[in-house]
Amino acid sequence: MSLSRDIVIEVKEVSKSYATGGREVEVLRNISFAAGREFVAVLGPSGCGKSTLLRIIAGVEKPSRGEVVFHLDGKPSIGFVFQFPTLLPWLTVEENVLLPLMARGMSKKEALGNAYRALKIVGLYEFRDFYPNELSGGMRQRVNLARAIAVNPDILLMDEPFSNLDPLTAENLRSEILDIWLSSLLPIKTIIMVTHNVEEAVLMSDKIIVLSPRPATVVRIIENTLPRPRSRKASEVQELVDKVYEYVS
Amino acid sequence: MVRFFNTIIFGLTRITRELDELSEIYGVRGRLYITKIFIPSIMPSIVAGSISSSGGAWNASIVAEHIRLGELNIDVGGVGSLLSRYAEMGDMYGVVLTSLLMSVTIVVINKLLWARLVRKIGGTYVIE
Fold first, then answer.
1. At A211, which helix (H) or strand (E)?
2. Residue A155 in contact with residue A188, Cβ under 8 Å?
3. What is the CB-side half-sphere exposure of residue B92 using CA atoms within 13 A?
4. Contact B127/A102, CB-based, under 8 Å?
5. How many Cβ atoms from other residues are within 10 Å of residue A183's Cβ?
6. What is the ipTM of this complex?
7. For residue range A71-99, what is the model confidence (pLDDT) as tens digits?
């Protein structure tokens, strides 16, 4: 594909094993794929090591073998949306979003600018002085998202971001994230989303990487070129969902 | 003091995997980690430890205020010594009145200081 020209991330033969209780447990085996300026969904059964892969891409965990290469100028800026909101209950919404920016040594003024912009994008600017326990689950997850996009990420990593929301809230947040992504409001080049939801992967992504159960290997890489906006009910969406289900099972 | 430290050490386990992950991913380290994550997350334990150790300290100091060992007579004054001397003299009225005064003082301290602290901490510092 033409994408090979501007590849952003290359995951090269990444393997990961843990030693637990004297035994070696292999989690990832020879995972290879490349991602360009696109929305990538990593699809696999729960507990197959998808989150570990994401942590390796984020650079907080070292692969046992293989490497992750970024084709960017300088160090990549990475935003991370956690599966759970992971907010500090003693900080306000604004302070929670500011925390990663302060960790990067940004000046207070610049950090506030970034935080406010991110909060406006997710529609929580008016709630900036609230504490997390005063917000609904969906709102907390949006703060999680705001925190990730406030760092002006080149790459946005999402770890099953909708799996703990009720279906309606999840649906809203999905379309909000797609809007942010498609509007090019932010300099995000690549989104990598880990999920176990086939429909979600088909509706959102440009590329689906199907992983097998432990140890995770790449079963298939599917280019998803369905036109957007995609409707759950459209027959071509349904066809692709069925096709992907075959690879998953 | 021992009780205080014990409770704080229990508090260390409160720094959950989740918060670790957050600080890892976003590189929250050093002073920022200490002030924004470490200290607040052990706050409930600090308060619990303070309450339990101050109660203990209060008990001990009241008992210690008046000691009579044969010829040795130590009296540093205060509500504990008052209570103890009334008891020695067999002054029931004095004992009841002093106890009542002491109870009221404790309740007031609880209401004004500890209950407020617990409410504040319980509201925002406890991780679900």
1. strand A207-211
2. yes
3. 0
4. no
5. 9
6. 0.84
7. 988 888 999 999 999 999 899 999 999 99
Domains in chain A: boundaries: 1-72+189-249
For chain B, give the percent of residues with pLDDT over 90: 15
Chain B residues with CB within 8 Å of chain A CB = 18-19, 21-22, 24-29, 32, 36-37, 40, 43, 123-128
Please report where in the chains the tokens 């300099």 appear, as a residue.
A187
As a whole number of angstroms, the distance between CA B23 and CA B49 comes to: 26
The tokens describing B8, both together, are: 């704080």
Task: Give pLDDT tens digits for A104-117.
Answer: 999 999 999 999 99
B28/chain A closest Cα distance in angstroms: 5
CA–CA gap between residue A81 and residue A75 (Å, rounded) = 19
**Is A1-72+189-249 a domain of CATH 3.40.50.300?**
yes
CB-CB neighbors (< 8 A) of A52 in chain B: none
Q: How confident is the model at residue A1 (pLDDT cuts 50, 70, 90)?
A: very low
Strand partners, B68: B73
Can you spell out the DSSP letters for A26-95?
Answer: EEEEEEEEEE-SSEEEEE--TTSSHHHHHHHHHTSS--SEEEEEE-SSSSPPEEEE-SS----TTS-HHH
Q: What are all long-range contacts of B87-92, with beta carbons under 8 Å and residues at least 24 apart?
A: none
Q: Of A204, A196, A205, which is closest to residue A245 (Cα–Cα)?
A: A196
Q: Which of residues 77-116 of A touch B (CB under 8 A)?
A: 78, 80, 82, 84, 86, 88-91, 95, 99-100, 102-104
CA dist B45 and A247 (Å) reads 50
Closest CA to A161 of A141, A143, A175: A141
Give the residue among A44, A6, A97 at the shortest CA–CA distance from A214: A44
What are the respective helix, strand and coil percentages of chain A, to the nearest 5?
40, 25, 35
